[in-house]
């Protein structure tokens, strides 16, 4: 065994040495996460994939810290084949195994090589095998003696694994490989066990729940030491990622809600706002020193290590002795480790939205004046910063670098709201979807400014990019009196979650140059063409409700746009009086509208689609369905110029492909 271990170390050292010597193409994690999807179909990607397959052990996992894109010599390939049966040094530390699984998924999305699929599934099976019966995971599996056996949150190891389990159990589009129902169910059980482990390991300080440690004992769940300078402590960094994972759970249990609220309170209590880290670098950009500078009103940061009994930050060198300040430890550890983090700020930013969505009442302190943190409160009773939403929008900074939250308390706000092009990164957050209502009653006749009057009828108009809304009702209250927009979005990267959008004709207008927009868990109702426009828009898990016989969509998709309106896992419902509703008609002849996995009520007409008396639209528009159900889904009776997608065609309609954006994966934040 000793000889085998020495051999493994020697082989990996020689490979890593070759890697560092060649270093021809970025860093391995950069390749996985930053390339466009199409790159994974190139010969270069396929060549790298062969390396990744070689590095994967028969047990299913991978070793860590390998630059897998580096070219291997024939001898190195032979050595890796010899190591296939070895179970030494296989880990999820430093994102190992999890990141290689993501790479294989991206490869399989472009190249249907069954080896990629098999590799991903082997990795998934490795994660199943590595999980403790109590729901946690060790750092190395098979188990490696020492602190490696502890339940490991360090460097997001367990969070990374549980994120995979969540995507698999939710059957989301994040991974291109779709496991069997049996594996999906296994992933769900694994995820639930993991969450239960997280809840059991949340540390109680004097009887009060706080946060988590980087490692917990695999038997007792108690805080545990790792390396000499990584003593048992409450972790500012790891705890943030754990809470964000918990916040992603749909319909959280009371225990999860308590865990999140307790951690949020702890983050508020432990934030440091009078220090900034100053990094000194040499000409090559390498950090040669770090100093903490006293700075009044600094952006909040948190210590990586805090005392278990009083949250006091501490720092350790390789001697394992606690120090009170960073400058008391040697340069090697001071400069080579992350002692502070700003990760919890994401939890604090997202907490109001999460709280509103899950019916968690915010305290007065949480909804108080936070303008310095780009946070504004609107309340009709005068308890907030403003009584009108538009006044809050007008007070927001122009072109901010970070999100600006406008929190709207319950009430009916009878006003016409415009979010201008310069007010980017606005997050409009309601206290509750049912009781936070923005309503106005403009319509075409009331505006009466000519043929374009429709576009001035909005209740809420969004022009600023990177907009989000949640827990709000947008309503045009004019009734069935012609065109009357409730919500008009002419911005890029707009995300609307858990909202009601209510109106009659032309309820929801979606446009903007090359605009990508995302609607999730929303209720949208109307009469004629009540979802219309030129934007690329994805609707997931939404209820689309027709009030009378007419048309649901009227897309005006530009000619060279790949996707138009896409409805996935939506439910199409109607009032009893509505018994003959079309899925869509082309406002412009290149319209694109697709329904995937939707439940269609019997109000949907058998022919499905209408050409709006435009014969040329039958040649140019693209109307399609896939794997829908319900009495309204009658594929054999649809108009001949519409389409029923094949499984392979439907796979192209993933959230990543539809909402692909050159700036960021904004829709997943």
From TrEMBL:
GO terms for cellular component: cell outer membrane. The keyword Phosphoprotein does not apply. Its EC number is 3.1.1.11. Pathway: Glycan metabolism; pectin degradation; 2-dehydro-3-deoxy-D-gluconate from pectin: step 1/5. PROSITE patterns: PECTINESTERASE_1, PECTINESTERASE_2. Residues 377-660 form the Pectinesterase catalytic domain. It is an enzyme of class 3 (hydrolase). Residues 1-21 form the signal peptide. PANTHER family: ACYL-COA THIOESTER HYDROLASE YBHC-RELATED, PECTINESTERASE 53-RELATED. Belongs to the pectinesterase family. This is Pectinesterase. It comes from Flavobacterium bizetiae.
């Amino acid at each position: 065994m000793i000889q085998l271990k020495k051999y493994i170390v020697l082989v990996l050292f020689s490979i890593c040495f070759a890697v560092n010597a060649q270093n021809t193409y970025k860093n391995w994690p950069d390749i996985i996460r930053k390339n466009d999807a199409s790159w994974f179909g190139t010969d270069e990607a396929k060549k790298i994939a062969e390396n990744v397959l070689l590095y994967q052990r028969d047990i299913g996992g991978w070793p860590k810290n390998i630059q897998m894109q580096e070219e291997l010599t024939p001898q190195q390939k032979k050595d890796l084949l010899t190591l296939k049966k070895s179970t030494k040094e296989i880990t999820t530390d430093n994102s190992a195994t999890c990141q290689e699984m993501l790479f294989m998924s991206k490869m399989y999305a472009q190249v249907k090589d069954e080896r990629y699929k098999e590799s991903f599934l082997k990795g998934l099976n490795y994660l199943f095998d590595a999980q403790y019966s109590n729901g946690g995971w060790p750092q190395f599996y098979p188990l490696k003696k020492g602190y490696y056996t502890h339940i490991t949150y360090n460097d997001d190891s367990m969070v990374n694994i549980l994120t995979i389990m969540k995507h698999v159990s939710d059957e989301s589009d994040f991974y291109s490989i779709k496991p069997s129902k049996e594996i999906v169910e296994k992933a769900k059980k694994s995820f639930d066990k993991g969450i239960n482990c997280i809840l059991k390991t949340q540390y109680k300080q004097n009887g009060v729940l706080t946060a988590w440690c980087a490692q917990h004992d695999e038997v007792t769940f108690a805080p545990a030491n790792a390396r000499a300078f990584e003593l048992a402590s409450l972790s500012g960094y790891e705890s943030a990622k754990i809470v964000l994972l918990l916040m992603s759970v749909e319909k959280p249990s009371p225990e999860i809600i308590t865990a999140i609220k307790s951690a949020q309170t702890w983050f508020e209590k432990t934030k440091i706002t009078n220090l900034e880290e100053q990094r000194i670098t040499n000409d090559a950009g390498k950090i040669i020193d770090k100093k903490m500078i006293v700075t009044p009103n600094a952006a909040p940061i948190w210590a990586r290590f805090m005392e278990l009994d009083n949250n006091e930050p501490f720092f350790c060198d390789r001697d394992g002795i606690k120090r009170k300040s960073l400058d008391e430890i040697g340069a090697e550890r001071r400069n080579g480790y992350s002692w502070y983090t700003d990760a919890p700020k994401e939890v604090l930013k997202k907490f109001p939205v999460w709280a509103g969505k899950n019916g968690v009442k915010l305290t007065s302190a949480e909804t108080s004046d936070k303008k310095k943190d780009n946070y504004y409160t609107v309340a009709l009773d005068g308890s907030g910063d403003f009584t009108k939403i538009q006044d809050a929008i007008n007070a927001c900074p122009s072109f901010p670098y970070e999100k600006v939250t406008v929190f709207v308390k319950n009430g009916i706000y009878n006003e016409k709201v415009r979010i201008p092009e310069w007010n980017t990164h606005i997050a409009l957050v309601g206290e509750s979807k049912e009781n936070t209502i923005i309503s106005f009653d403009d319509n075409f006749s009331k505006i009466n400014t000519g043929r374009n009057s429709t576009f001035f009828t909005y209740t809420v108009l969004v022009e600023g990019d990177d907009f989000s809304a949640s827990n709000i009702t947008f309503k045009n209250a004019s009734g069935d009196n012609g065109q009357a927009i409730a919500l008009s979005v002419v911005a890029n990267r707009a995300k609307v979650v858990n909202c009601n959008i209510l109106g009659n004709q032309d309820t929801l207008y979606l446009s903007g140059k090359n605009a990508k927009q995302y609607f999730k868990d929303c209720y949208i109702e109307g009469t004629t063409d009540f979802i219309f426009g030129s934007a690329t828009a994805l609707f997931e898990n939404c209820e689309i409700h027709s009030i009378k016989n007419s048309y649901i969509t009227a897309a005006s998709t530009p000619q060279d746009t790949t996707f138009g309106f896409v409805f996935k896992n939506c439910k199409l419902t109607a009032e009893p009086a509505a018994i003959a509703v079309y899925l869509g008609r082309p406002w412009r002849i290149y319209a694109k509208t697709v329904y995937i996995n939707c439940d269609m009520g019997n109000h949907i007409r058998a022919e499905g689609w209408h050409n709006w008396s435009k014969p040329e639209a039958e040649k140019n528009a693209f109307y399609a369905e896939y794997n829908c159900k319900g009495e309204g889904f009658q594929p054999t009776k649809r108009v001949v110029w519409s389409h029923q997608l094949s499984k392979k065609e439907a796979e192209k309609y993933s959230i990543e492909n539809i909402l692909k954006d050159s700036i960021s994966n904004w829709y997943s934040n």
